[in-house]
Design goal:
The protein has two domains: 200 residues, NAD(P)-binding Rossmann-like Domain (Rossmann fold, 3-Layer(aba) Sandwich), CATH 3.40.50; 95 residues, UDP-galactose 4-epimerase, domain 1 (Alpha-Beta Complex). A seven-stranded parallel β-sheet has the order 3-2-1-4-5-6-11, sandwiched between helices. With 324 residues, it is α/β, with parallel strands linked by helices. Strand 1, helix 1 and strand 2 form a beta-alpha-beta unit. Helix 4 runs parallel beside helix 5 and helix 8 crosses helix 10. Helices cover 40% and strands 15% of the residues. The protein has ten helices and 13 strands. It binds NADP nicotinamide-adenine-dinucleotide phosphate (NAP) and guanosine-5'-diphosphate-alpha-D-mannose (GDD).
C-alpha cells in the first residue's frame, strides 16, 4: 500500500517542490486547492497527472474533515497560508484567519478524524522578527514584527499545544527564507531576478525596491522540502530550524543578480517608499545544527548558485514568452 500524503498549499512554491519530492518517495499525493475562477496550476501542471487534487479551504473546517475522511492520509503537510508579509498589514484579520486559525482548523479536523495522522506545520523565521539572539535557533524567543509573523507564532504554538494536549504527532518546521524560479514575483528575490532579466532583454529600464539593507538567510526551496519530509519520519514530533547559516543583504542579492548579466545594480535600482514596511525584520540568520544532526539534512544549493539559477530561469522564461 502506498502512503498517502495531503498537501495544503500545493499550488504554491513549496507545495509544488514537496509534491515532486513525495512522488519520488513513492507516495500517493493529494493536493488541496481553493476554488478560483481561473486555474492557477502553473507550478504543478507538469505533475498534474500524477497527483490528486481536491477542493478545500483552511477557512472551512467542514471541507478539511471531508478530505481527511475521504483520503485517509498518513501525513498532512500544512503549507497553505497568506504568506506575503507586506499584505498582512493591509489584510491583518484575513491573515490571522488563514495563517493562524487555519492551523487550528486542520489540527482539530485531524484530531476528530484520525489523531494518528502525522502533521507538519510550515512555521517561519518571521516569528523571530526583532531578533533576540544571533543566530536564531529552536530555543530563541519569538518577537514577530508583522501581522503575518504574529499569525505564524500562533500557528506554531497551537501545533505544540495539540502535540502536548492530545499526544499528536504535530511537528513545526521553522524555515528561513527559501527561494527558487517558482517563487512568487512579489517576493524580493524573484522581483529582482525578473527585473534583471527584463532589463537585460530591453523590456524594462529600472527596478523599484524598498529597504536594501535587510539581511536574510536565503536557501533553495527544493532543498527545504526534503527537511519537511524528514521531520515526519522521526520517532518523535519536534521543532526544527531549517536554514543555511549564512546571511546576505538585499543589496548583495542585487549586486550578484545584475553582475551575473554584466550590469551594475546601482545603474538601475531606485529606492521607493511604497516598498518600505511599517516594521522591518532587519536580520535573519538561522542555526540549522539540530536539523543537520537529527534529520541528517544538508542544503545543496549555495547562495550564489541560487541567485544565478533564478536569473537564468527568468531570462529563459521571458525569451520564450516574448519569442526573443
Ligand atoms: P506561497 O507560494 O504563497 O503558497 C501559498 C499557498 O497557500 C498557495 O497554494 C495558496 O493557494 C494557498 N492558500 C492560501 N490561502 C489558502 C486558504 N485559505 N485555503 C487553502 N489554501 C490556501 O507560499 P510558499 O512560499 O510556498 O510557502 C509555503 C508555506 O511556508 C506558507 O505557509 C509560508 O507562510 C511558509 N513559509 C515560507 C517560507 C519561504 O521562504 N517560502 C519560509 C517560512 C515559512 P492559491 O494558489 O490558491 O493562492
Ligand atoms: N517583497 C519585497 N519587495 N521586499 C523588499 C523590497 C520589495 O520591493 N525591497 C526590499 N525588500 C525587503 C523586505 O523589506 C524584507 O526585509 C526583505 O526584502 C525580504 O522580503 P520578502 O522577499 O517579501 O520576504 P520576507 O522575508 O518578508 O518573507 C518571506 O520569508 C519568510 C521567512 O522568513 C515569506 O516567504 C514569508 O512567507 C516567510 O515566512
Amino acid at each position: 500500500m502506498k502512503k498517502v500524503a495531503l498537501i495544503t498549499g500545493i499550488t504554491g512554491q513549496d507545495g509544488s517542490y514537496l509534491a515532486e519530492h513525495l512522488l519520488k518517495q513513492g507516495y500517493t499525493v493529494v493536493g488541496m486547492i481553493r476554488r478560483t475562477s481561473t486555474v492557477n496550476f502553473e507550478r504543478i501542471k507538469h505533475i498534474q497527472d500524477e497527483i490528486e487534487l481536491v477542493s478545500g479551504d483552511l477557512l472551512d473546517e467542514v471541507s478539511l474533515i471531508n478530505i481527511l475522511q475521504t483520503y485517509r492520509p498518513a501525513e498532512v503537510y500544512n503549507l497553505a497560508a497568506q504568506s506575503f508579509v507586506q499584505t498582512s498589514w493591509s489584510q491583518p484579520v484575513f491573515t490571522g484567519e488563514v495563517t493562524g486559525l487555519g492551523v487550528t482548523r486542520m489540527l482539530d479536523a485531524i484530531r476528530s478524524v484520525d489523531p494518528a495522522i502525522r502533521f507538519y506545520q510550515a512555521s517561519s523565521s518571521e516569528m523571530f522578527g526583532k531578533v533576540q539572539e544571533v543566530p536564531q535557533r529552536e530555543s530563541t524567543p519569538f518577537y514577530p514584527r508583522s501581522p503575518y509573523g504574529v499569525a505564524k507564532v500562533y500557528g506554531h504554538w497551537i501545533t505544540v499545544n495539540y502535540r502536548e494536549s492530545y499526544n499528536m504527532f504535530a511537528t513545526s518546521g521553522i524555515l528561513f527564507n527559501h527561494e527558487s524560479p517558482r517563487r512568487g514575483r512579489e517576493f524580493v528575490t524573484r522581483k529582482i531576478t525578473d527585473a534583471v532579466a527584463r532589463i537585460k532583454l530591453g523590456l524594462a529600464q529600472e527596478l523599484r525596491l524598498g529597504n536594501l539593507e535587510a539581511q536574510r538567510d536565503w536557501g533553495f526551496a527544493g532543498d527545504y522540502v526534503r527537511a519537511m519530509h524528514l521531520m515526519l519520519q522521526q520517532s518523535e514530533p519536534d521543532d526544527y530550524v531549517v536554514a543555511t547559516g549564512e546571511t546576505h543583504s538585499v543589496r548583495r542579492f542585487c549586486e550578484i543578480a545584475f553582475g551575473h548579466v554584466g550590469l551594475s545594480y546601482e545603474d538601475y535600482v531606485v529606492q521607493d517608499e511604497r516598498f518600505m514596511r511599517p516594521a522591518e525584520v532587519d536580520l535573519l540568520i538561522g542555526d540549522p545544527a539540530k536539523a543537520i544532526s537529527t534529520l541528517g539534512w544538508q542544503p545543496e544549493v549555495s547562495f550564489e548558485q541560487l541567485v544565478t539559477m533564478m536569473v537564468e530561469a527568468d531570462i529563459a522564461l521571458l525569451k520564450d514568452e516574448h519569442r526573443l
